[in-house]
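4.2 Preliminary Data

To establish feasibility before requesting continued support, the project team ran the inverse folding procedure on a target of 151 residues. The structure was first converted into the token representation described in Section 3, and no sequence information of any kind was made available to the design step. The complete token record follows.
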């Protein structure tokens, strides 16, 4: 069921907002932006080029737990430079596999060198649940001839 759902569908429903920060910014600025935008990761860009990603996990493990100051530590010092990206044509199933293999929770979506957006594990799970609910409703309607009034 999930193999037919593509990342482009998630991006179109999320909108085109891409939040990023410069490598020279402080970790405090990055955490503050994540809190303001209610997101768990930021793309790290230099100009239009994607150079990494910084997540709440990077902050907790590389700053908070080792006693560094978020106001003195720069994003470039702790960012994850190992970037796993996907295209809008990737399936949700492919993305979940990549997230599991690489132990990441966010995937930048790229069209060549152009950043189109970011998908999170939460985005993927929500889309799968929505697709499953739709399939259940269709099956109930097929079997009973009537839509489920409780759905």
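Position-by-position output of the design step:
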């Amino acid at each position: 069921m999930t193999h037919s759902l593509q990342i482009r569908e998630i991006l179109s429903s999320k909108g085109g907002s891409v939040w990023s920060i410069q490598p020279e910014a402080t970790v405090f600025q990055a955490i503050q932006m994540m809190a303001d935008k209610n997101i768990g990761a930021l793309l790290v860009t230099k100009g239009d080029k994607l150079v990494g990603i910084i997540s709440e996990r990077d902050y907790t493990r590389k700053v908070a737990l080792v006693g560094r100051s978020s106001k003195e530590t720069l994003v470039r010092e702790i960012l994850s430079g190992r970037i796993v990206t996907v295209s809008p044509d990737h399936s949700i199933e492919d993305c979940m596999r990549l997230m599991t293999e690489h132990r990441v929770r966010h995937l930048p979506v790229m069209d060549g060198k152009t950043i189109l957006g970011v998908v999170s594990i939460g985005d993927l799970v929500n889309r799968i649940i929505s697709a499953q609910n739709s399939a259940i409703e269709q099956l109930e309607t097929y079997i009973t001839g009537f839509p489920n009034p409780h759905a």
